[in-house]
Design a protein that fits this description.
The complex is a heterodimer. By secondary structure, chain A is α/β, with parallel strands linked by helices. Chain A has helices spanning about 5-10, 25-40, 70-75, 90-95, 110-120, and strands at about 15-20, 45-50, 85-90, 110, 125. A five-stranded parallel sheet of chain B has the order 4-3-2-1-5. Classes of the chains: A alpha/beta, B alpha/beta.
């Protein structure tokens, strides 16, 4: 088990991989909250969206209609917490007929091979 | 240290398989033991695979105990779970 102070002091690199659709339970918004907390404690946080999680990028979400928090707005808050780059699986996006121009914020597209490298470059990986 | 992938389901295995590197280690556990393996060698948790009757199904798999799984987690970084 990691000591919290140790994690902070070492500025460990945390990768958050999101795979579920944005309104499938509360997984995606809860995970993004966790990312913001980790970043506030000076961990170096990266976020990668894959599979149905790429639907979180869509503009014009109105989650108040289903009594939920709008996930797209949470994504837009990431740069305020120095999570500057949002990584997105290129295959997951194209297989759902989506493009980067559909996205609420700028993203960095990665091939699956590049995602494998990204995983290997982090100390901790959270995957729902 | 290389990456350890813990695979908990067939969909988890699909997502993992595309995104793991050559020297990464894969462990199948829970319903992940039902995954179809493409020639690559993997570890399977003994109790989960025997419980489901799939322990003899995969040629390239090695059965490991829970203690051995703990040992693997201590020798790899990062450890990634695929649900």
């Amino acid at each position: 088990m990691h000591n919290v102070r140790e994690l902070i002091m070492k500025k460990l690199k945390l990768l958050l991989m999101l795979r579920r659709a944005p309104y499938d339970g509360v997984y995606v918004p809860e995970a993004l909250d966790a990312a913001l907390v980790a970043a506030a404690f000076e961990m170096r946080v990266s976020v990668l969206l894959l599979d149905d999680a790429v639907f979180a990028l869509l503009t014009d979400q109105r989650a108040d209609l289903i009594g939920r928090r709008t996930v797209g707005k949470l994504l837009r808050a990431l740069p305020d917490y120095e999570i500057e780059t949002l990584y997105v699986c290129a295959d997951s996006l194209s297989s759902r007929s989506l493009q980067t121009s559909d996205s609420i914020i700028p993203v960095c597209l990665l091939s699956v091979g590049e995602q494998a490298e990204l995983i290997g470059n982090h100390d901790l990986v959270w995957n729902d | 240290m290389s990456t350890l992938h813990l695979v908990f389901s067939r969909t988890g295995h699909k997502a993992c398989r595309k995104r793991c590197q050559q020297y990464d280690t894969i462990v199948l556990l829970q319903d992940g033991v039902y995954a179809e393996i493409d020639g690559r060698s993997v570890f399977m948790l003994e109790s989960d695979s025997i419980a489901r009757g799939v322990h003899n199904r995969l040629e390239n798999s090695t059965l490991i105990s829970m203690d051995q799984l703990v040992e693997l987690t201590s020798r790899h970084k990062p450890v990634v779970s695929w649900r």
